[in-house]
Amino acid sequence: xxxxxxxxxxxxxxxxxxxxxxxxxxxxxxxxxxxxxxxxxxxxxxxxxxxxxxxxxxxxxxxxxxxxxxxxxxxxxxxxxxxxxxxxxxxxxxxxxxxxxxxxxxxxxxxxxxxxxxxxxxxxxxxxxxxxxxxxxxxxxxxxxxxxxxxxxxxxxxxxxxxxxxxxxxxxxxxxxxxxxxxxxxxxxxxxxxxxxxxxxxxxxxxxxxxxxxxxxxxxxxxxxxxxxxxxxxxxxxxxxxxxxxxxxxxxxxxxxxxxxxxxxxxxxxxxxxxxxxxxxxxxxxxxxxxxxxxxx
Amino acid sequence: xxxxxxxxxxxxxxxxxxxxxxxxxxxxxxxxxxxxxxxxxxxxxxxxxxxxxxxxxxxxxxxxxxxxxxxxxxxxxxxxxxxxxxxxxxxxxxxxxxxxxxxxxxxxxxxxxxxxxxxxxxxxxxxxxxxxxxxxxxxxxxxxxxxxxxxxxxxxxxxxxxxxxxxxxxxxxxxxxxxxxxxxxxxxxxxxxxxxxxxxxxxxxxxxxxxxxxxxxxxxxxxxxxxxxxxxxxxxxxxxxxxxxxxxxxxxxxxxxxxxxxxxxx
Lengths: 297, 266
Fold this sequence. Notes:
The complex is a heterodimer of chains A (297) and B (266). Chain A is mainly α. In chain A, 74% of the residues lie in helices and 1% in strands.
């Protein structure tokens, strides 16, 4: 190669790199200012006592030791865990069950069914909240009117310490069922029909074809759904903020709500940051193990 | 065959149960104040009073704010993410992998963890209580960048190579060839971004205290947060606020379902 063509080549390379940086710069700077700097800032203020009124005071691991002995924090995380343990498997099973059923029938009603089940997904969480608050209304709501038909007395739902969290989980299921059902359905459709036919010829029944052929083949989708819904369930915020604000008597005060309350209502910013870093670490460990499970596939 | 009918019947029942709350939302909007809390399945004395009450100027302003924010974020984000994703997929430059890894790692950060610092930064930049405060932090989303990159990695190279032989610059190739051919990814992402931003509640609640810039979600949530809730107005407002999204949803349903397939993403 002559020096001239090398120079020409390197000039082209230089222009390409320059174009690339120009293309990436806006997004990268945005992420830097609005995500990366904030997370560093969160880590820093988690070592300070800061209430916006007096000066920031460096207290080392003070907030962290306070966190470990803060019963209310661990109780709120316990509620998050309860929500996750009930919500994630229920959503997983019902959406998979519906997807398998829809896949198994051929009917002109199929597209109506799919649209109808996906419809609640188009409703925003605040509108879902106002609507279900109306439906759950203790004295005059639709759900109690329906239960009364069967002789069941009025239930307090959101007003009861025992029922509030379940009532919220039901709304979460209502919103997200269709979307996860569609994810499963598109995974099922990817499985070649010949696999099922071969199994049928070999005399496998419906359950066996599902258990030994379909389920293993849609495993990547199953894991994807488990990860995303678990992470989302740790961060359920809007519904609870609008419907119960963590009440009654803290029955629905999940982890994120406790953090929000500490940070924005009590302005205990340093401690709020410590708690939010703890949440980050929990989710990080969780997604680390999950992604390991995925990559082992 | 019989089993087929039974399954379809069961599925239709499930569909009706899931649609029922939405039916209640629309139907109740037309009930008179006296009838509101009687569990009748249709309004016996249909009235437009609730809708008239709901269409207050505050409500309309909040709808406008939500539209401005959602549309601006969606359009600008599409362009920025397409550019960024394209550069990461097609260009060769130093620190490419590092940059990509940094961008992807931001996905792990929960929004709650950066809420306070984000508010501090908004304050520092002087964009609280403004459109800029509602829009700017919502623009940057690593998932969008990642999906564009994936799309361009699977994009046939031939067209771009032909243009390059003709002497087209890389930037021009992107704007005149790659971007116009990116509809399969732009359409589902546009819907997802619009819905996501229309739905957004927490950040608009935190960053803006000015009533004239309440988004519709904040406006609705405020209506039910007091001690006595004007239910007829709440239900009618919720119904009206749901309409634009339902229309978008029904028009774009096909794309949304395809989008779920290609992106696995809301």
